[in-house]
Amino acid sequence: MTTQNIQNFQETIDHVSAESEAPLSRPESPENSENFEPEIVEENNGAFYHWGSKAFPQLQISENGKTSQLFRYFGEDYLTGLPTRDNIVAENDECLSVILNNALDKREEIPFMAVDFEGSSEKIGKKNHYILHLYGSLINSQKAVVTLTGIQIFFDILVPDNESVDGFKIRIDEILCNTVNNYKIEHINAFPLQGYHIEKKSYLRIFTLGSGDRKKALQAIQDKNFETALDDMFSFHCKIARENGIAISGWSIISKYRYKKHSHYTHDFQVSINDFRPVEDLKIISDRFPISALMRDRTLILTWDIEIQSRELGEFAEIHDE
């Protein structure tokens, strides 16, 4: 790859967050579209349910003859008659929404707590780029989605002891130029992950734009029996989060963001990976955001076992030791 191509590759990575129109959240499904018309579906038992932005109750008759109300909900709108998240936030606000909105109006740094995340390769302009979506809450407990852009994805190739870096780089370049269109090669020194070593070894770090190209390049290199590192093929989003120090269930700070507020369900932010950082010490931002709010745990984790179920609504399952 020529020097000019390497420069163009780096500019593509560096400027994607500022000039692109990357999705502000996960790709929109038909149900999320403003023009989506909900569909009413009839089941075989004659019951109706709503698929879309609203849902309404049905009468459920259990085996003991009791009648109860059952909601079938498949959309993302609020259910009539039930408290919304915004209602709960308003009851426990303590002026936090005013502080948050003032910061948003001025495009100042704001704290965000991620509790879940996922990654995907998405087309921005004419090229694929790796995007990380973080889901969590803001200082006042309102939901937020933070889309991280400008992420560099890579893997490493160990330079054999009997080869020079420049000579090995030529061999790798010949393999990759027939495999992927856009890549960059850098020489680094690092300790191998396995075994005990007193000196660093030479590696070639291979950067690609999307996870698909990374997978192709990695497979091509491994087919030649070269030793690779940082070569996770699955749960790739966890690798990205680990390498970039992204905190899960901890406060982070976002700055220089693009922002959009949906009408009733969440805040959307798009920010470069370089402008997203964990908060090491809460006292650093306590002059702008109350320390009492920052120390309050805003996470709720629900778990279930799909193998446990009850026969009737509202009844606990009986566990038999077999």
From TrEMBL:
Region called Disordered, residue ranges: 1-35
Biased composition (Polar residues): 1-11
Top-level taxonomic group: Eukaryota
Name of protein: Uncharacterized protein
UniProt organism field: Gigaspora rosea
Upper classification of the organism: Eukaryota, Fungi, Fungi incertae sedis, Mucoromycota, Glomeromycotina
